[in-house]
């Protein structure tokens, strides 16, 4: 469990994190979302004791990071996959990490196997692809078999197979009862990966709830309808106070359920070629929620 209370970080006049309170529960994947500069990395650094809060605090299973006796056993993190000496092999990097944290050497082979990096482990890390670097970073986070895991942009630059692999890994870690906190700008991926979301903008909390609820609250479900008799259908829909927008030869209906539209069509002998409920996306929800918090809009 991660608990942030009134967490605040100022750099001179910049308020990077502003009175932020949230909790990250075990057994779930919690996504950490926010526009560029929202304060996600700063928050993660404070969780890991790499930055000292100006005010407020963040606790890891009830304790401050600085009070953890063997941090890697309690909390593992991937903050920057490039944080590896380029001339060291992946294996040597992990062995050094294990030794400096009092972890057994056999754990190195275990985590290399877990992330599928056993083959190239003896090659110099400077020659690793981005995907291999991410896997090595994740191996480092898993080294101490911690109950809490933090991943900052783990799918950054990965190919579809790598992204799918990360999604499955995060789900497995959560299923094992771990606390998994992960930031990403890939919203379609987060919609499939995260059970819960913490959304911030300009350092402040915008939403903390389930991914489904975030989408439901910030978007409107619509129904897409195609019919050869649109002219007869439209007055029936607007007669029930629905709002209709014609788009690409179809009608997008706001404010009326698919079932009711089907009933109206059937009882009036109107043929339908399509009747498909459309769910709002996390992208739409995110845009709406963070509209006020984006520092720079395109075209400015
Ligand atoms: N060491 C620092 N000194 C001064 N300002 C900083 C420092 N680190 C971060 N900031 C500022 O704090 C704010 C939050 O930055 P942060 O990197 O935490 O955001 P982020 O949500 O991780 O952004 P991104 O999605 O672009 O990675 C930004 O305005 C940034 O410029």
From TrEMBL:
MF term (GO), any: ATP binding
Organism encoding this protein: Saccharothrix violaceirubra
Pfam families: ABC_tran
Domain ABC transporter: 2-227
SMART domains: AAA
Name by which UniProt lists this protein: ABC-2 type transport system ATP-binding protein
Record flagged with keyword DNA-binding: no
PANTHER family assigned: ABC TRANSPORTER, ATP-BINDING PROTEIN (PTHR43335)
Key word Cell division present: no
């Amino acid at each position: 469990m991660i608990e942030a209370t009134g967490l605040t970080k100022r750099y001179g006049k910049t308020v990077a994190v502003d009175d932020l309170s949230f909790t990250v529960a075990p057994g779930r994947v919690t996504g950490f979302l926010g526009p560029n500069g929202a304060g996600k990395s700063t928050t993660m650094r404070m969780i890991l004791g790499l930055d000292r809060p100006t005010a407020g605090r963040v606790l890891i299973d009830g304790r401050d990071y600085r009070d953890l006796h063997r941090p890697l056993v309690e909390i593992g993190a991937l903050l920057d996959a490039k944080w590896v000496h380029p001339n060291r092999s992946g294996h040597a990097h992990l062995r050094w990490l294990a030794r400096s944290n009092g972890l057994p050497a056999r754990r190195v082979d275990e985590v290399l196997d877990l992330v599928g990096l056993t083959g190239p482990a003896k090659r110099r890390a400077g020659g690793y692809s981005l995907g291999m670097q991410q896997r090595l970073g994740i191996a480092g986070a898993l080294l101490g078999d911690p109950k809490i895991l933090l991943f900052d942009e783990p799918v950054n630059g990965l190919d579809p197979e790598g992204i799918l692999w990360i999604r499955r890994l995060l789900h497995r870690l959560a299923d094992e009862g771990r606390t998994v906190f992960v930031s990403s700008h890939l919203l379609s991926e987060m919609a499939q990966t995260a059970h819960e979301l913490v959304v911030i903008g300009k350092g402040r909390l915008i939403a903390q709830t389930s991914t489904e609820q975030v989408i439901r609250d910030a978007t409107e479900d619509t129904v897409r309808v195609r019919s050869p008799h649109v002219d007869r259908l439209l007055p029936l829909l607007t007669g029930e106070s629905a709002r209709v927008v014609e788009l690409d030869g179809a009608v997008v209906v706001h404010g009326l359920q698919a079932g009711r539209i089907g009933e109206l069509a059937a009882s009036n002998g109107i043929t339908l070629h399509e009747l498909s409920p459309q769910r709002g996306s996390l992208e739409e929800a995110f845009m709406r929620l963070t509209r006020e918090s984006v520092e720079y809009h395109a075209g400015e």
